[in-house]
Amino acid sequence: MRADVKTMKLFEVTTQPLSVDEVVARVADPGNGAVITFVGVVRDNTEGRQVHFLEYEAYPEMAEETLRQIGDEVRQRWKSVRGVAIVHRVGRLQIGEASVVIAISAGHRPEVFDAVHYAIDRLKEIVPIWKKEVWADGSEWRSEA
Amino acid sequence: MKVKVKFFAAPREALQRGEVQHELPEDATVVELVRSLVQAYPVLGPYMCRAKVAVNQKYAAVETVLHDGDEVAYLPPVGGG
What we know:
- The structure holds two protein chains of two kinds.
- Chain A is α+β, with helices and mostly antiparallel strands.
- Helix content of chain A is 28%, strand content 40%.
- Chain A is built from three helices and nine strands.
- In chain A, the strands form two sheets. In chain A, strands 3, 4, 6, 8 and 9 form a five-stranded antiparallel sheet that branches.
- In chain A, helix 2 packs antiparallel against helix 3.
- Chain A is elongated, with a radius of gyration of 16 Å.
- By secondary structure, chain B is of the alpha+beta class.
- Chain B has a five-stranded mixed sheet.
- In chain B, strand 3 (52-55) and strand 4 (58-60) form a beta hairpin.
- The longest helix of chain B is centred in the middle third of the chain and has 11 residues, at 30-40.
- The N and C termini of chain B lie far apart (37 Å).
- The A-B interface holds A 40, 56-59, 61-63, 65, 88, 99-100, 120, 123-132, 141-145 and B 6, 8-10, 12, 54, 57-59, 73, 75-81.
């Protein structure tokens, strides 16, 4: 583990491209027996419409705070969880690029899959981040809420 | 008193600004701010019913009382992930 990893933010909104390995490193711990990750990726279509790219926008300070809140909720519900890191990218993202990486670690694997599922569902529900789909002939701000 | 109001996504584009300073009577609540904003900026009207409001970066109920210098954010339905 690199020395600077300890000082890295566990919950972050960034304009930089995401690396799964780098986010996994944020929860590195010799007691971990499992790290489960979720990677959200920009898809080239929605409801049959061809997407050119996505534009993500955040209320950064509040987004990082609500990501931290989700981390707290995960630890409360799944006591076996050791580490949680969630990093969301904003700005213009091309097809195939990662928009979000969630890494959750535990001593053993049971339950952690559920924790990752919970974390991404909560992210889509409460984190102040918005997504604009841009097509050849227009664009729209999308929400699943 | 004055509060700072931040806008994002569709309402930000409609307003063509990400932030305004808004003058309010003392002890105004969130719902009073929302009404006052729609009066001042009618273009926001269509976005008001589905939006949530954060005060000082926390989700806030409509009856929350505002204070001078508060940072209020007008949050349309989120779409991260």
